[in-house]
Automatic annotation (TrEMBL):
This is Glycoside hydrolase family 25 protein. InterPro entries: GH, Glyco_hydro_25, Glyco_hydro_fam25_subgr. It comes from Phocaeicola sartorii. One of its GO terms (biological process) is carbohydrate catabolic process. Belongs to the glycosyl hydrolase 25 family.
Length: 288
């Protein structure tokens, strides 16, 4: 067999044209010089920040207690400047005051600011009784003080259970002041708190046959309990380091300081005044 030369044309290599090389010319971008804060502006900002810090510190930590360092233009007694225009003074105590020398405390009745009444903590929540209440309560009567008992309210505990616990802890006699509800904690629900407080007050009034005294701070009263329902109860206001009571409504007692010092009591004690005469205070007491 005769081989013939293939007539198939040989593969032709395609010539690819070389891509032109782009020459990129990088432009040098001139960086703008950063503007620096003038030194005087830094000082101004620092001064403003320092001023705001000092103002906040004074408002929250110094101002509420500045009354302690004010000059006393009236009469000073028991380590504090006494409110002017009031003649009936008292204290409130608990186990925090330790053992009280009631004989020495009774000697204050011979001074310019005689202590006439004493409120004592009796109970807290639904199961805590103040360990020195009964001894203090008995001693106050023995040494001639007008006495009263208070309950520290716990918003997390059933109000009827708390009322029953106070009733079981405190026997009030003729000549004693009405029972006191001490409310300082709001709890999680304001409306529920008001309903529960009213249940406690109603239960106590039903048992002792007298309207209880409502104790709370000026701010707490105006924020949460400033309505006709709670305004009907005798109000014991806690408002420290002020020259006069700022509360516009009626009030019976004013706890004006927590740093009083008295003979017979170690450490600091709360001082109170009654908004009226001694005869009016005696008229408030229970009658049997």
């Amino acid at each position: 067999m005769v081989r013939t030369k293939s007539t198939r044309p040989a593969a032709v290599k395609k010539k690819t044209a070389a891509k032109p090389v782009r020459r990129t010319t990088q432009r040098k971008v001139k960086k703008k010089p950063q503007r620096q804060m003038p030194p005087w502006l830094r000082y101004v900002i620092a001064a403003v920040v320092a001023f705001l810090f000092l103002a906040a510190f004074y408002y929250f930590f110094i101002r509420p207690y500045s009354y302690r360092w004010k000059p006393c233009y009236g009469f000073k007694a028991y380590g504090v400047c006494m409110p002017s225009g009031f003649g009936v003074h008292g204290i409130d105590v608990s186990h925090h005051q330790g053992v009280i020398d009631w004989r020495m405390l009774a000697q204050t009745r011979q001074g310019k600011f005689p202590i006439r009444f004493v409120f004592m903590k009796a109970s807290e929540g639904g199961d805590y009784g103040d360990k020195v209440f009964q001894a203090n309560f008995d001693s106050a009567r023995t040494h001639g003080f007008i006495r009263g008992a208070y309950h520290f309210y716990n918003p997390k505990t059933d109000p009827i259970r708390q009322a029953d616990f106070f009733i079981n802890s405190v026997r009030l006699d003729s000549g004693d002041l009405p029972p006191v509800l001490d409310i300082e904690k709001r709890g999680n629900d304001e409306n529920q708190l008001r309903r529960d407080l009213k249940r406690w007050l109603d239960k106590i009034e039903q048992h002792y046959k007298v309207k209880p005294i409502l104790y709370t701070s000026y701010k707490f009263k105006t924020r949460y309990l400033n309505d006709s329902v709670f305004n009907s109860y005798p109000y014991w206001i806690a408002h420290y380091y002020v020259d006069s009571v700022e509360y516009k409504g009626e009030w019976k007692f004013w706890q004006h300081t927590d740093v009083g010092t008295l003979p017979g009591i170690r450490g600091k004690v709360d001082l109170n005044i009654f908004n009226g005469s001694l005869e009016e205070l005696q008229w408030m007491t229970l009658k049997k």
